[in-house]
Amino acid sequence: MARYTGPKSKIARKFGEPIYGPDKALERRNYPSGQHGLARRRRKISEYGVQLKEKQKAKYTYGLLEKQFRILFEKAERAGGVTGEVLLQMLECRLDNVVYRLGIAPTRAAARQLVSHRHITVNGGVCNIPSAAVKAGDVVAVREKSKALEVVADSLRSNRVSKYSWLEWDGASMSGKLLNVPERSDIPENIKDIYGNISFPETGQSNHARIDRQIRKIRISSVRARLRNHNW
């Protein structure tokens, strides 16, 4: 199961936000790490740089690697509508994120571990796939023999129980239901709006995605031509 295992405080300082939760290093030094951290903060960022930064922020926030994120982006692109909004909705409906939003786990990383260790059920059946898509009406619950886990009890005691309009929590049975797919305005993550409503190009409304695909095709054609010339 691929996941980011590098320094988390460094990532939080890079974006100037506690992406992985409360961070003392970020509180003490709220600027990018490295010798020229403060100088980089004052530098003007291009439009592409802003888009890239927001994309990376979303990727680290939801715990995905580049390949996983790209696959999900392509699915959102095919789904129609505003690609960025659909992408964020897909990220919010991942099982590990729903477990985190319900308050069962203190962080998304902890939620991912609970799911992969078979402590979570979906509609009564055990599911150990963190990326599984939760649909409207699905019931996500803590497995019966896992209800006494310290990490779950501590998270629920810390008043992290879901307060989101698209989720419903039942404390007696330690289960929650996804009432509906959240709207962009309901998602609390601080991802800046670019190209209308989100930091990704809109399908059918921006030339950036089409140009990117055309450049990719040209490069692939060029590589294939060189391989044919060399008889590889």
Describe this structure as you would to a colleague.
With 232 residues, this protein is an alpha+beta fold. It contains ten helices and five strands. It has a five-stranded antiparallel sheet, covered by helices on one side. Helix 7 crosses helix 8. The radius of gyration is 20 Å and the shape is globular. The two termini are 34 Å apart. The model is unreliable at 194-207 (pLDDT under 50).
Task: Summarize it.
The protein has 232 residues and is an alpha+beta fold. The protein is built from ten helices and five strands, in the order ααααααααβββαββα. It is globular and about 65 Å long.
What's the helix and strand layout?
Elements: H1 8-15, H2 24-28, H3 37-42, H4 47-61, H5 66-79, H6 83-92, H7 95-102, H8 108-116, E1 120-122, E2 125-126, E3 139-142, H9 150-157, E4 167-170, E5 175-178, H10 207-229
Antiparallel strand pairs: 1-2, 1-3, 3-5, 4-5
The profile of the biggest β sheet is: 5 strands, antiparallel
Mass-distribution shape: globular
What ranges have pLDDT less than 50 throughout 5 or more consecutive residues? 194-207
In percent, how much strand structure appears in the residues?
5-15%
- Could you spell the SSE succession in H and E letters? HHHHHHHHEEEHEEH
Structural class: alpha+beta
- In DSSP terms (H or I, runs of 4 or more residues), the helix count works out at 10
Radius of gyration computed on alpha carbons: 20 Å
Subunit organisation of the chains: single chain
Q: Can you give the mean pLDDT?
A: 79
